[in-house]
Design goal:
Order of helices and strands: HHHHHHHHHHHHHHHHEEEEEH
Distance between the termini: 62 Å
Largest sheet: 5 strands, antiparallel
Number of helices: 17
Number of strands: 5
Radius of gyration: 28 Å
Strand content: 5-15%
Shape: elongated
């Protein structure tokens, strides 16, 4: 440090803003390491406060990333810009939020950092805080005067309207229950649908059993669909094989299954690949009643451990139970409009049955995008999967 002081104070010409091949200057190094004495000397010697490296990162970006509050304050007092973007579209607040640096995030907001800016991945600082489970920073951002825009995603600078990111979706995908509770308390729309569906789609697909329970208890609509016309249960049935998904299937089936019926005769339709093949006595959970007269049902084969989903005419079944919200798994609370869904509709016109063909049962996967790859037991490093049902 003494040598540097001598160099800075000498009469020799010294390039204080010299940059290496990566664009790193002495000020970048001082900000990254949090060496405030060196940082002060460089700033006094007129080092360029917003000098950028080859990635468009300024010294303030590095200080925010590392959570160096003293260095951040020095750079801000020297006039560092809080809203300058890196090549990835990050402002310093993105980095402090992602890594959970509360004090630095608060300092940046006090210096007019814009929490509504999105990076190249269409994520705001709140998105990153929720994705990585940074509860305190998320609460800080939700207390800002931009909370409405952050929650609704409307009017955000640079946001792609086709984005599949919302704070709630990201938190659900990664299993951050405390974050979800804070977002719901702040007034975020629990039923907001993106290309990926609702946050329930995300939680179910990534095996977050406890989050699925939390969302159901909060009243999420289990019937909402993604852009492939799939419910959360459809996705779990088709794309997951993990142990957590087995519990999730049961939970979602109970949430959807307001009407249970029994087949009174055999049914099989040779001309309809979407048909749910039935044997007399089969128990079917009715998932939907379509206006074209068909019912969509689900059968779980306990012996084989398989699930079958498909369509059948109501003329081949009899109603055996009408639930108004199950309490077997995680005390599911269904929205009132779903509880009344079947009660308010008359049985559709009967459709003739076809003769049974022995052992003709087949899984029906009603999916509009055949090129989607199986997610399997996918998860995220930012959150841990819940391994058991919350019953």
């Amino acid at each position: 440090m003494w040598l540097l002081w001598e160099l800075l104070g000498s009469t020799k010409r010294l390039n204080i803003n010299y940059q290496d091949l990566d664009g790193f200057s002495a000020l970048h190094h001082a900000a990254l390491t949090g060496t405030t004495e060196l940082l002060s000397l460089l700033l006094e010697a007129q080092a360029t406060v917003d000098i950028k490296d080859i990635n468009g990162m300024r010294p303030l970006h590095y200080a925010a990333w590392q959570g160096k509050a003293d260095s951040v304050l020095l750079l801000l007092r020297a006039g560092a810009s809080v809203n300058t973007l890196s090549q990835d579209g990050h402002i310093p607040l993105h980095l402090s939020a992602q890594y959970g640096h509360y004090q630095v995030s608060e300092m940046l907001l006090q210096h007019q950092s814009n929490p509504c800016l999105v990076n190249k991945a269409n994520k705001t600082p709140l998105d990153l805080a929720c994705e990585f489970g940074r509860l305190e920073v998320a609460q800080l951002l939700l207390n800002s005067n931009m909370v409405v825009a952050l929650l609704e995603g409307e009017g955000l600078d640079g946001l792609d309207n086709a984005s599949s990111n919302t704070p709630l979706h990201l938190a659900a995908r990664n299993g951050h229950k405390d974050i979800i509770r804070v977002l719901l308390k702040a007034g975020i729309d629990i039923n907001r649908t993106t290309q990926a569906g609702t946050c329930l789609h995300e939680a179910a697909l990534y095996g977050k059993t406890e989050v699925v329970c939390l969302l159901l208890d909060a009243g999420i609509d289990v019937n909402l669909r993604d852009t492939y016309n799939q419910t959360a249960l459809d996705n779990v049935n088709q794309f997951t094989t993990s142990s957590a998904s087995k519990d999730i299937k049961i939970i979602l089936r109970e949430a959807l299954g307001s009407l249970q019926v029994r087949a009174v005769k055999d049914y099989w339709n040779l001309h309809d690949p979407t048909a749910l093949n039935l044997r007399a006595g089969d128990l079917i959970m009715v998932l939907e009643q379509h206006t074209d007269g068909r019912w969509k049902g689900h059968i779980h084969d306990n012996q084989r451990g398989t699930d079958r989903v498909g369509y059948f005419p109501p003329s081949v079944v009899e109603v055996i139970s009408q639930r108004t919200g199950g309490s077997v798994s995680c005390q599911v609370s269904l929205p009132s409009q779903w509880q009344q869904h079947f009660l308010s509709r008359a049985p559709p016109t009967s459709i003739g049955s076809a003769p049974q063909i022995e052992d003709s049962y087949a899984l029906y996967y009603d999916h509009a995008a055949g090129d989607r790859n199986s997610v399997g037991s996918a998860g995220s490093s930012a959150g841990s999967s819940a391994g058991s049902s919350c019953r």
